[in-house]
Amino acid sequence: LMSAAGVGGGLVQAGGSLRLSCAASGRTFSPYDMGWFRQAPGKEREFVAAVSRSGGSAYYADSVKGRFAISRDNAKNTVYLQMNSLKPEDAAVYFCNARRVGVDYDMEYWGKGTQVTVSS
Questions:
Q1: What is the dihedral of CA 39, 5, 12, 72, to 10 degrees?
Q2: Taking the chain, what is the end-to-end CA distance rounded to the nearest angstrom?
Q3: Between 20 and 30 A from 76 (CA), which of 35, 38, 96, 120?
């Protein structure tokens, strides 16, 4: 499902911006909630942001509220993460995630990570 890596990572100075995107292939992902997670060296993977199936609701970790914005384009099977006012502590490998939970099922998929480096 998540055959495309997150695209758009790279090196940016503190205060700068990056936009990550993650395109899914193999099936439509409109029935899935989509999200972004990140993992810094020596740390566990942590939640960053999520967007509902319709794109009407978004949720953020406290550490990124007001700086990051998640969105999705179901027609393109793509989820985005706009990251502004980046801080050195935002540096991590970012992973996109698709999840669909029902009464008797819980399906989850991960994309390949993309590295974000923030220089101070």
A1: -90
A2: 36
A3: 38
- Spatial separation of the C-alpha atoms in residues 36 and 7, rounded to whole Å: 12
Contact 37, 48 (CB under 8 A): yes
Joined together, the tokens standing for residue 89 give 């502590």
Residue pointed to by tokens 């890596």: 5
pLDDT digits (tens, 9 = 90+) for 70-92: 999 999 889 999 999 999 999 99
Backbone angles phi, psi at 24, to 5 degrees: -100, 150
C-alpha to C-alpha distances, 88 to 67, 74, 116, 118, 120, nearest whole angstrom:
13, 32, 10, 5, 6
Contact 69, 81 (CB under 8 A): yes
